[in-house]
Design brief:
Blueprint (H helix, E strand, L loop, with lengths): L2 H11 L3 H8 L8 E2 L7 E2 L7 E5 L1 H7 L4 H5 L5 E5 L7 E5 L7 E5 L2 E2 L20 E8 L3 H4 L6 E7 L7 E9 L3 E12 L2 E15 L19 E15 L4 E15 L2 E3 L3 E3 L13 E17 L2 E17 L5 E21 L2 E18 L5 E20 L2 E12 L3 E14 L2 E12 L3 H5 L10 E15 L2 E13 L2 E4 L4 E4 L3 E16 L2 E13 L12 E10 L4 E10 L2 E2 L14 E2 L2 E13 L2 E8 L18 E9 L1
Parallel strand pairs: 6-9
Antiparallel strand pairs: 1-2, 3-8, 4-5, 6-7, 8-9, 10-11, 10-37, 11-12, 12-13, 13-14, 14-17, 15-16, 17-18, 18-19, 19-20, 20-21, 21-22, 22-23, 23-24, 24-25, 25-26, 26-29, 27-28, 29-30, 30-31, 31-32, 32-35, 33-34, 35-36, 36-37
């Protein structure tokens, strides 16, 4: 990062109008501004051999979707699995790796829940409100982010203030008794930049246990609707003490409740475990999530320094069908650290960082299996990264050491070079990763205190080429090895280390075509194969997945967009059975098409709508858990 980029970075922190326009503009892959790949501001093309996808604010608007889960489903190399409708558990698999190998961030703050069983990311309650863009970095990046980033990171970046005041408000509603009201504002007052957003989302929902699946019982097993509600507040504030010193404060809070169904030991979901149509059906989970960041940024050229404090607090209250609270899970995480970016020359930047992170799980279970978990662990970390470019050659390399209070020192490293010759770019990366066992895996009733950290090695190599001025395409081969994987052993009812190497490998490809400013089409295809040390295919991860996205701005007022997703056959968990006791084996492939559009009836009034699952395709992402059929939504938005 040279001095010019440092100046751009400061402009970003001061929320300049120029950079905001650059961040929200749509361009070919390689042109979007990213932070997550190197922890410094770059275009993708300047981030070496990193495999990065950016979902811009325009992409978010064109999709018409309301949740992060739905937004990222078509992303290259990602598989998202939901166990029902809005607010139900939604996990993500990156490049075939276990969900716990992906780290989810909000403005750089880790939001994987320390109190959950595997510290996996859950996208269930992440709505798109106040989100500027989403950056997805594929491949091991533990060297930058530590534990849980063995497969990659998803960084959700919220909107900053701008030079002038902007405000909006809207309402929408549609299928399943769904409605939403929202408002947002951002701008600048003297040295203070601000961005606020608030929303209220509610849905009557549909039965989590799939009432369209004729291989599971009904008549009291799938009769009850499972609703959802979510209230959200988000803010991003910046204060410029001078042209070289800026304070940034970010806060995001959500309060949600979702009704759920049981999972029957017979091997499928149901309203009640006993399928009693006359029994109460009050099974639900209440979730409170609070994440925040305070950062002081100081430019003393050629050094750019950031001192920060990150925190994440999450609480889940779980109730059974009789409305008896069975679990209270509270997860806390905080991190303090410093990062310095030193620009030696226009083509050479050195980044160093130190941090201390502490996570705490406070879980209480009631009833027959009552237990308590109250544990915490800390970790000191330091990393060093070098970014060097000469001509069309760019090399990003980094090393890191994590000193975990329980497991001691673990070192990781990564190198990501790229080379551009004319319209063609060759890129590659190789890195190592690690994941410390969760506090639940170690110390819960099912825990095993003798567990060791999981480790990984991963590499990828690819090529990107601009065929014409309007057409660009590329492909990347990837391979990952995971050692000491942690899995639940049903025979011992304990978490155990899996002996041997779990491998995933595959090909990611994309093409983008934009013959005019009014028309844009993007397609991607991922082939992936993953298997455990015994040769078993990884569950719920398709070998073949493809997406096609298109947007046409008919004129200055009207837009129409479409998104198609093809998901191939997947192996389901061996514990999934139908009502006759037959193992499920595999889940069928499916194609889903969504359609959205908008029309400006006035300069500041916009009507919009979408149809999900346009052709009413029946499918399941997880056995016996329902997905929505054809559904329609419409709304109106007023801007100032």
């Amino acid at each position: 990062m040279n001095r010019k980029k440092l100046a751009i970075l400061m402009a970003a922190m001061l929320c300049s109008k120029g950079l905001q326009a650059e961040e929200t503009s749509k361009g070919y892959i390689g042109q979007e501004v990213v932070v997550s790949a190197t922890k410094t501001l770059n275009r993708i093309s300047d981030a070496g051999g990193s495999s990065v996808t950016v979902i811009t604010s325009r992409d978010i608007e064109n999709s018409g979707q309301q949740t992060v889960e739905e937004l990222i489903k078509g992303t290259t190399g990602l598989d998202v699995v939901s166990t029902g409708g809005l607010g139900t558990n939604a996990t993500v698999f990156m490049r075939g790796a276990d969900s716990r190998s992906t780290l989810v961030l909000i403005d750089g703050v880790p939001v994987n829940d320390p109190s959950s069983a595997n510290r996996t990311p859950d996208l269930a309650n992440l709505t798109i409100d106040n989100i500027e863009r989403i950056e997805v970095v594929r491949g091991p990046v533990s060297v930058l982010y530590g534990s849980n980033a063995m497969a990659g990171v998803i960084n959700i970046i919220t909107r900053k203030g701008g030079d002038r005041m902007r405000a909006l408000a809207g309402v929408e509603g549609g299928s399943f008794g769904t409605w939403k009201a929202y408002a947002a504002a951002n701008g600048k007052v003297d040295r203070l930049t601000y961005s606020f957003a608030a929303s209220r989302l509610r849905s009557d929902g549909f039965s989590v246990a799939d009432d369209r699946n004729d291989r599971i019982p009904h008549n009291g097993n799938t009769d009850e609707k499972d609703g959802y509600e979510n209230a959200l507040f988000s803010t991003n504030l910046g204060y410029a003490f001078s042209k070289n010193v800026n304070l940034e404060t970010i806060l995001r809070f959500s309060d949600s409740s979702v009704s759920l169904d049981d999972y029957l030991w017979a091997g499928y979901a149901g309203d009640r475990e006993d399928a009693n149509p006359n029994g109460l059906k009050l099974n639900h989970t209440e979730t409170h999530q609070l994440t925040g960041r305070v950062a002081m940024k100081v430019l003393t050229e050629p050094l750019f320094s950031t001192v920060y404090y990150n925190f994440s607090n999450q609480r889940r209250d779980i109730y059974d069908n009789e409305a008896f609270r069975t679990n209270i899970n509270k997860g806390y995480l905080y991190e303090v650290g410093w990062q310095g970016d030193l620009s030696f020359a226009s083509n050479h930047t050195l980044t160093a960082g130190i941090s201390y992170q502490r996570e705490h799980a406070d879980n209480d279970s009631y009833g027959f299996y009552a237990s308590t978990l109250d544990r915490h662990v800390g970790m000191n970390s330091a990393f060093l990264q070098d970014q060097l470019s000469f001509g069309g050659i760019k090399v990003v390399s980094a090393i890191r050491n994590d000193d975990n209070e329980t497991f001691g020192n673990h070192s990781t490293w990564r190198i990501a070079p790229s080379a551009t010759f004319g319209d063609t770019t060759f890129k590659a990366s190789y890195g190592t990763g690690f994941r410390a066992p969760s506090l639940y895996e170690l110390y819960s009733f099912y825990g095993n205190a003798s567990l060791n950290p999981e480790t990984s090695e991963g590499w990828d190599a690819g090529i990107e080429h601009r065929l014409t001025s309007t057409l660009r395409a590329g492909a990347t081969w990837f391979h990952n090895d995971f050692d000491n994987r942690i899995d639940y052993e049903w025979l011992t009812n304990k978490y155990q280390q899996v002996v041997g190497i779990t491998r995933t490998h595959g090909i990611e490809s994309f093409a983008e075509w934009s013959p005019s400013k009014a028309f844009f089409v993007a397609a991607n295809y991922t082939w992936m194969h993953g298997e455990d040390p015994d040769g078993n295919t990884m569950i719920r991860r398709p070998a073949n997945k493809a997406s096609l996205l298109g947007t046409w701005h008919i004129n200055s007022r009207a837009r129409v967009s479409t998104a198609m997703q093809l998901v191939g056959q997947r192996r389901e968990t061996p514990y999934a059975y139908d009502k006759d006791g037959n193992p499920v084996g595999n889940l069928d492939s499916y194609v889903v098409v969504n359609l959205s559009g908008s029309y400006k009836v006035a300069d500041n009034v916009e009507l919009y709508g979408r149809i999900d699952n346009l052709f009413d395709r029946y499918y399941e992402e997880a056995w016996s858990y329902a997905t929505p059929g054809r559904s329609a939504y419409a709304g109106v938005k007023v801007t100032l």
